Amino acid sequence: MAHFYPLTVQHIKPLTDNSVAITFSIPKELTKTFAFSAGQYITIKKEIKGKELRRSYSISSSPKSGSITVGVKKVDKGSFSDYANHKLAVGDVLEVMPPDGRFVFNPTVKPKNIAAFAAGSGITPVISIARSVLESNPKNKFVLVYGNKSYKETMFYTELVKLQLEYTDRFFIYFICSQEREENSLFGRIDVSTVNYVVKNKHKDIAIDDFYLCGPEAMIHLVKDSLKESEITSDDHIHFELFTETEIKDEIPPAPDGSTQLTVTVDDEEFTFSMDKRVKVLDAVLKENIDAPYSCQGGVCSTCIARIKEGQALMEKNQILTDEEIEEGLILTCQAHPTTPTLKIDYDDV
């Protein structure tokens, strides 16, 4: 389940001074393995300075493109992002896990009008979704609000302009710049007035079916709350994905003392061992050298999801699973502590 495949870097394109687009060549025999829905991500594994790193990056290319491209923005103390921006070269081989993720757009026969709000590197899955929306139906429309400090720091700026020229009557983009006054952009940050201006003013005649939000948590909550308070849409039509870990604001009840007998199923193999309830499930699993799927280890991606078969566990934070999925027994193992004497989880049954 946590299988990685060696993929060759086919192309590297600078996007800004601190970000690049990396395109992988997909061998014919892996075409089905690496088929993806717009909005999904891949997990890359790389050993740097003797330490294995796993990082998730959203796919920016269209599912119809026949290739997989990801955008990697350099971040402070980002070992892999620094490597990708300065040392990675065409022809290098990286270990890559097949696409995953739930922040997706699935084309339908019925025409769809989609709106998205993105900031910074949050554009990466959104541009894939935009391409899929526009390609899948000649009647589909896409409205995008994209915030950055300036055009210089705007990832995929050229690609977005080209998309606008190609779909003049169906793709509408609003660049928001917070530190530079740029031509054909709004000055400031994405806020309530921006949401109202774009959705209730400029495009009041378009009935938006779904909204996709991607970027910092503060921006996502602001847009989400604005859409709901203005009665523009409801929760089930708002899809979002965080790009960074956030501090836990709500007080989490401490995990009880004691140990749990944990049984883990992964790749049709079963393992049983004792673990401390104060330890997170994924940490305990990895300590036993069990090859469970994981990436961010911060509750941001959905790679480490498993299903509880017996017992209970408490998650420290969750921005991915719905209440219904939690009721069905799904947990983010990187955030979960056992709360019962025994716990059985299955990584395969998700």
From TrEMBL:
<dbReference type="GO" id="GO:0046872">
    <property type="term" value="F:metal ion binding"/>
</dbReference>
<feature type="domain" description="FAD-binding FR-type">
    <location>
        <begin position="2"/>
        <end position="106"/>
    </location>
</feature>
<dbReference type="InterPro" id="IPR050415">
    <property type="entry name" value="MRET"/>
</dbReference>
<dbReference type="GO" id="GO:0016491">
    <property type="term" value="F:oxidoreductase activity"/>
</dbReference>
<dbReference type="InterPro" id="IPR039261">
    <property type="entry name" value="FNR_nucleotide-bd"/>
</dbReference>
<keyword id="KW-0408">Iron</keyword>
<dbReference type="InterPro" id="IPR036010">
    <property type="entry name" value="2Fe-2S_ferredoxin-like_sf"/>
</dbReference>
<keyword id="KW-0479">Metal-binding</keyword>
<dbReference type="InterPro" id="IPR006058">
    <property type="entry name" value="2Fe2S_fd_BS"/>
</dbReference>
<dbReference type="GO" id="GO:0051537">
    <property type="term" value="F:2 iron, 2 sulfur cluster binding"/>
</dbReference>
<keyword id="KW-0560">Oxidoreductase</keyword>
<dbReference type="Pfam" id="PF00111">
    <property type="entry name" value="Fer2"/>
</dbReference>
<keyword id="KW-0274">FAD</keyword>
<dbReference type="GO" id="GO:0050660">
    <property type="term" value="F:flavin adenine dinucleotide binding"/>
</dbReference>
<keyword id="KW-0285">Flavoprotein</keyword>
<dbReference type="InterPro" id="IPR001433">
    <property type="entry name" value="OxRdtase_FAD/NAD-bd"/>
</dbReference>
<dbReference type="Pfam" id="PF00970">
    <property type="entry name" value="FAD_binding_6"/>
</dbReference>
<dbReference type="InterPro" id="IPR001041">
    <property type="entry name" value="2Fe-2S_ferredoxin-type"/>
</dbReference>
<dbReference type="InterPro" id="IPR017938">
    <property type="entry name" value="Riboflavin_synthase-like_b-brl"/>
</dbReference>
<keyword id="KW-0411">Iron-sulfur</keyword>
<keyword id="KW-0001">2Fe-2S</keyword>
<dbReference type="InterPro" id="IPR012675">
    <property type="entry name" value="Beta-grasp_dom_sf"/>
</dbReference>
<feature type="domain" description="2Fe-2S ferredoxin-type">
    <location>
        <begin position="260"/>
        <end position="350"/>
    </location>
</feature>
<dbReference type="InterPro" id="IPR017927">
    <property type="entry name" value="FAD-bd_FR_type"/>
</dbReference>
<dbReference type="InterPro" id="IPR001709">
    <property type="entry name" value="Flavoprot_Pyr_Nucl_cyt_Rdtase"/>
</dbReference>
<dbReference type="InterPro" id="IPR008333">
    <property type="entry name" value="Cbr1-like_FAD-bd_dom"/>
</dbReference>
<protein>
    <submittedName>
        <fullName>Ferredoxin--NADP reductase</fullName>
    </submittedName>
</protein>
<dbReference type="Pfam" id="PF00175">
    <property type="entry name" value="NAD_binding_1"/>
</dbReference>
